[in-house]
Amino acid sequence: MACTCSHEPAPKQPNSKFRTALWIALVINLAMFFVELIGGAYAHSSALWADSLDFFGDAVNYAISLAVLGASLYWRATVALAKGIVMATFGLVVIVKVIYAYIQGIPPEALTMGAIGILALIANVVSAVVLYAFRDGDSNMRSVWLCSRNDAIGNVAVIMAAIGVFGTGSMFPDIIVAVIMAVLGLTGGYQVIKKAQEERKTEVHLSH
């Protein structure tokens, strides 16, 4: 996962396959945002609600990525830096939601959690597979891959949380998963920020 410094010329502009992959991921994530937003509110699930925010953030990220495909490495890295900050911010928002859910003490509805979790997992696996070929590109390309990868991991955790809630009747499996998703957002955001800063410095160095 560690980023490596490079003083090579900026990579070539992504081809139409990357653009198509971004559009597919954008549509999937925007649709799932609404599904999980409504389902999370209905099921009183912190994990689903948090995941819906993550879907929305990813949809925005993909839209921004489409807008800067033809830009220079410096500006692609600048956008990636902003996206990394957004990813980390969502992690902090999830932590706040977990604290609120704990205070309320309402256990989520397990069957709704599980059903939506499975649907979200399928959606994110499709997105991750579509974007997999571009995971080793610049920070902008890497950020979109990390978004889908983190979401797929998070959805598996949501399903496990639903099973835990169903078996125990407790809200804690839901809270634990929400915390895991928060950590994924924070660490993923850090990785993107780190690589974006390196690319910005490299581009500035090469331009002088």
TrEMBL record:
Keywords on record: Ion transport, Membrane, Transmembrane, Transmembrane helix, Transport, Zinc, Zinc transport
Signal sequence coordinates: none
Gene Ontology terms: cellular component: plasma membrane
Gene3D superfamilies: Cation efflux protein transmembrane domain
GO terms assigned for molecular function: zinc ion transmembrane transporter activity
Protein localization: Membrane
A Pfam match: Cation_efflux
Main location: membrane
Domain Cation efflux protein transmembrane: 22-196
Top-rank taxon, per record: Bacteria
The keyword Zinc is annotated on this UniProt entry: yes
Keyword Transmembrane in annotation: yes
Membrane topology type: Multi-pass membrane protein
Record InterPro entries: Cation_efflux_TM, Cation_efflux_TMD_sf, CDF/SLC30A
TM segment ranges: 21-43, 55-75, 84-104, 110-132, 152-169, 175-193
Identification of the protein by name: Cation transporter
Lineage: Bacteria, Pseudomonadati, Pseudomonadota, Gammaproteobacteria, Moraxellales
